[in-house]
Design a protein that fits this description.
Blueprint: H1 5-20, H2 24-34, H3 39-54, H4 56-67, H5 76-91, H6 96-110, H7 115-126, H8 130-140, H9 145-153, H10 157-169, H11 176-183, E1 191-193, H12 202-205, E2 207-208, E3 215-217, H13 221-227, E4 232-234, H14 237-247, E5 257-260, H15 267-279, E6 282-287, H16 290-299, E7 308-311, E8 328-334, H17 349-352, H18 355-375, E9 376-386, H19 392-404, E10 409-412, H20 414-421, E11 435-436, H21 439-442, E12 448-454
Parallel strand pairs: 5-6, 5-8, 6-7, 8-9
Antiparallel strand pairs: 1-3, 1-4, 2-3, 9-12, 10-12, 11-12
Helix pairs in contact: 1-2, 1-3, 1-5, 3-5, 4-5, 4-7, 4-8, 5-6, 5-7, 6-7, 8-9, 9-10, 14-15, 14-20, 18-19
Bound molecules: S-adenosylmethionine.
Length: about 450
């Protein structure tokens, strides 16, 4: 018996994610191409890889119970094979015999001495349903209610707490289960049709997004991207709204200078470029990492606007070096963050983050915020955006900056702006003037959007 090519690809990506800190969303397309997988096999490899990585915490708890030993006493490659097998048994329609047999054959290739062990553990797992395993994992997990919830929903406990706290701020802590479930579901590929660059609207191209006026989904999204090169791109709906919150916050005066301070890889820069073209504004993108600056250049290549892309540390950026002696009229600060709002798209991310990252990132966000304010022209607008709902990275960073800058900056009502942009009103809970989007409530990544105006 041979192992199907989709399972080999999935296994190789799991191994690279574990051993080499690879990113599944970057490596997987590469491996799919290299193995020349058919469309159906590519879809299966994607489902197996993403599903296994997202649910890894829960699957490890199941494996530990079924093997009657902690997972740190299982050889890592064998553990990868088991995780992949458990995912097939508990979360897919793959028949039991295929899930077990292919895992055993894979084990014979990778770690021959362990094939009997793999067979035994997976047969034990296959004898109970996912629901039954959830019950046992909950019962056997040591610690309080949060530890148990974290184990069965496959999130680190500190992330469960942070997400609950963010929802509680909006008086919506009762949505936590729905949010954790949304993190574990495969999001649809969402597209943006850069505005003003062609005759077709999102309605002409596919199924228009519920909220973003420039977003859509389509049955074969990548074909559409290829057919409308540079104009139709993959982008989450929340990211589109974040860029539009800045470009549509008020009418554009021709000649306005715009800056995207942390631009890489350039998804929002592309939207800003299309908007700048329509309004006759001048756009500069800045990015710390040269390779990511190159991605920004490629992202804006489909927009007939001369976008200057600069490599530099945003904390030390000077308006005059960036070609705006008198400062910028609009700045997007899409800050480096923990990415806790995009866990469904970055399947391994939850296992790589630690609470200590939050402290480090909030310090960086504060420095970048101050740099952005210094770069603003009088009356200029700053959009502070994160793809994290963590209170420290959102309200914490914003409140601290408003305090540091005293009366020299003021918050602008981002809710009013975003509600005026969307196709249908968003259910925004809690108090404004900031916007927090959510995967479970809006179907977007959990983007946070704040607008600030430089006074005088
Ligand atoms: C959240 S991402 C931006 C995503 C981008 N706006 C988009 O929509 O594609 C943050 C970016 O900030 C960059 N970055 C990190 N530290 C920076 C700094 N000190 N100055 C400028 N850019 C920085 C990172 O390399 C990363 O590309």
């Amino acid at each position: 018996m041979r192992v199907s090519p989709s399972r080999i690809v999935a296994y190789e990506v799991l191994e690279a994610v574990r051993a080499d800190e690879a990113y599944a969303n970057l490596l997987l397309p590469n491996r799919i191409d290299r193995s020349k997988l058919s469309e159906a096999d590519a879809a299966l490899a994607t489902e197996l890889t993403y599903g296994t990585l997202r649910m890894q915490g829960f699957y490890d708890a199941v494996i530990a119970l079924a093997a009657d030993r902690p997972t740190d006493r299982i050889d890592p490659p064998v553990l990868d094979i088991l995780r992949l097998g458990v995912h097939q048994l508990l979360a897919t329609r793959v028949p039991t015999h295929a899930a077990v047999n292919e895992s055993v054959v894979l084990a014979k290739r990778i770690s021959p001495g362990a094939s009997g062990f793999v067979n035994g553990v997976l047969r034990t797992v296959s004898r109970s349903t996912a629901e039954e395993w959830r019950g046992w994992v909950e019962q056997e997990t040591r610690g309080g209610a949060d530890a148990k919830l974290a184990a069965v929903t496959s999130h680190p406990e500190w992330i469960v707490r942070a997400l609950r706290a963010a929802l509680a701020r909006e008086d919506r802590a009762d949505e936590l289960d729905a949010l954790l479930a949304a993190d574990n579901a495969s999001p649809r590929v969402n597209l943006v049709a850069l505005p003003g660059l062609g005759d077709e609207t999102p309605d002409d191209l596919g199924d228009p997004n519920r909220f973003s006026p420039i977003g859509l989904t389509a049955p074969r999204p990548l074909d559409l991207v290829a057919a409308h090169e540079g104009r139709v791109r993959v982008q989450d709906e929340g990211s589109q709204l974040a860029a539009l919150a800045l470009s549509r916050a008020r009418p554009v005066t021709p000649g306005e200078r715009w800056l995207d301070l942390c631009a890489g890889p350039g998804g929002k820069t592309a939207v800003l470029a299309a908007e700048a073209l329509a309004g006759d504004a001048i756009l500069t993108g800045n990015e710390l990492v040269p390779a990511r600056a190159e991605l920004v250049r490629r992202a804006v290549a489909g927009v007939p606007l001369d976008v200057r892309v600069v490599v530099g540390d945003g904390r030390r950026a000077e308006a005059s070096d960036l070609g705006a002696e008198d400062g910028f009229d609009r700045i997007l600060l899409d800050a480096p963050c923990t990415g806790l709002g995009a866990l469904r798209r970055r399947p391994e991310a939850r296992w790589r983050k630690a609470p200590s990252d939050v402290a480090e990132l909030t310090a960086l966000q504060g420095d970048l915020f101050d740099a952005a304010v210094r770069l603003l022209a009088p009356d200029g607008l700053l959009a502070y955006v994160t793809c994290s709902p963590h209170a420290s990275e959102t309200h914490g960073t914003l409140t601290a900056a408003l305090e540091r800058w005293g009366g020299r900056i003021e918050a602008v009502d981002a809710r009013e702006v975003v509600q005026s942009v969307v196709r249908e009103p968003l259910d925004l809970a809690g108090e404004g003037p900031t916007v927090q989007l959510w995967p479970h409530r809006h179907g977007t990544d959990a983007m946070f959007i704040a607008l600030v105006r430089r006074v005088g």
